[in-house]
């Protein structure tokens, strides 16, 4: 393994309390004054604050709690994603760590061990260690859901300056062939252009539904100095697609242009307008109907197997 210093990992989103970090007296006082939630053995948090966190932040807190109990752990896969600020869907069940021998690659409680047969780049900072973003993306592409892997790869390329050729080279150069071919799908499609997890996973759904790939982040001049950027555009059929409904402007008065006015202005430039969110991704046939009604044609048969996998991905 090669180790590279990192400026910082994402910090725990909640105070994690142990007897060691408070001392006996303060620890007992804190427990008397709080409704206590046990994050893991000997690591606690305030219960109300804990349940107020979104699920991905609870997962990040669980990773930090695991680090308190396992200070030499090297985090991998979704756990590395949480520390590195890469996408995490919901609250994964397992904490993922590297182990030193194949026989230790098993699950113990909520900790899943992984044995790496290849040389991985490790990052260390703030007393924590994880697999690097590049190797984490490839790990997830080889072993995880392809739509999630696409979202992770897009985010890593967008935020960390990683290139598609970096990822492809790592995938092809690994000694182990396990998962190499499945990884080709997300790694070959990642561009770093989508601006959210929803946009990345939407592109997977669009392909598996049999629709052509759109252009991404296309700008429209609405006049008066207002520029609207849309998530997706099928230029040949003059159809706009929006994966989240959020307004995206670059102009002098962006705060005053309401979403309805923006959409009306965009509709004057195109023949069709499609809008969807997470509910439509969970039921991809609904997304298919939205795109068809907007005027986007199917160019191939849907991939029923992968569409079922997509339903399983999202809670």
Structure overview:
The chain has 315 residues and is α/β, with parallel strands linked by helices. It folds into 2 domains: 2-6 and 54-189, no CATH class; 197-313. Helices cover 43% and strands 20% of the residues. It has helices at 19-22, 24-33, 47-52, 55-69, 77-84, 133-143, 146-160, 164-173, 180-189, 197-208, 259-267, 278-282, 284-294, 304-313; strands at 2-5, 36-40, 43-46, 95-99, 107-108, 111-115, 121-125, 128-131, 215-223, 226-234, 239-242, 249-250, 272-275. Strands 9, 10, 11, 12 and 13 form a 5-stranded mixed β-sheet that branches. Strands 1-7-8 form a 3-stranded mixed β-sheet. A 3-stranded mixed β-sheet has the order 4-6-5. Helix 6 packs antiparallel against helix 7 and helix 6 crosses helix 9. The chain is globular. 37% of the residues are buried.
Question: What is the averaged pLDDT score?
Answer: 90
- End-to-end separation in angstroms reads 35 Å
Class derived from helix and strand content:
alpha/beta
The helix content is: 40-55%
Quickly count the helices.
14
Blueprint of the fold:
Blueprint (H helix, E strand, L loop, with lengths): L1 E4 L13 H4 L1 H10 L2 E5 L2 E4 H6 L2 H15 L7 H8 L10 E5 L7 E2 L2 E5 L5 E5 L2 E4 L1 H11 L2 H15 L3 H10 L6 H10 L7 H12 L6 E9 L2 E9 L4 E4 L6 E2 L8 H9 L4 E4 L2 H5 L1 H11 L9 H10 L2
Parallel strand pairs: 1-7, 4-6, 11-13
Antiparallel strand pairs: 2-3, 5-6, 7-8, 9-10, 10-11, 10-12
Helix pairs in contact: 5-6, 6-7, 6-8, 6-9, 7-9, 7-10, 8-9
